[in-house]
What does this fold into?
Amino acid sequence: MAASKLRLFPFIAVPLMILMLPLSIYFVDSAQASEKVSRNVTIAGVDVARQTQLEATASVGEYTDEVSAQVTRVDVNGTIYELVPEDVGLSFDSTSAVDEALIVHKGGIGDWFSAFSTEVDVPLAASMDPEKIESVLAMWEQDAIGNPAFEGAVSVSNGTITHEYPRQGEVIDRSRSEALLLQALETKTTSLVVLPIVESTPSLANSDIDDAVEEVQRIIDRGVVLTNTEYGFEFRVSPDELGRALQTAVVTEGG
It folds into this structure.
């Protein structure tokens, strides 16, 4: 009976050892790489596999530095401009991308096995500063478009109120242009980026400008007197001074 057990042991132990070998490798490898990015993981095409958080951040930083140094050529109504990413406040969310890369292929032994054959590219989110991109587009619009749309204006010059009525014209399509520019900057394209130009109808009417002229006249005519009875202080602002200080701005949203 004892001899029979000894003969059976190799047939039971060998399959068990075969099963334990990959498990052992998995546990050892997972422990060594617990704070590193798994195999076959990239961020925006940048290889960060088996890198620590600091190393992956540095690798992505080298890539974003290259992108930020790229000059993009832009066509606005036939006029060519060169755009530097800094001009539109291009930035990248590297922190979130690295954090996401650190958890890829970390869901257990199944994920660990798939890491040997499945490549995962973590996206790197980019954005532009809204005020800076609007400033650039407005400058290009004024320079390159001969008949720009105009919302009207009211101003005071030498004590005289002057105004201009709204007029229809052409503008740079903001949403489409911003998307095209962001894509071009992200991909470091060397191709010319052509911005779409569209017809635009002003949201203000001539009557809105007339109303604004009347309001400006009322503001100037009545003047301003600031007083403080406790200290006997009085500060007067004359109509002429109000006229020189007054500024107007077109507000198409919010009433």
In short: The radius of gyration is 33 Å. The longest strand covers residues 72-76.
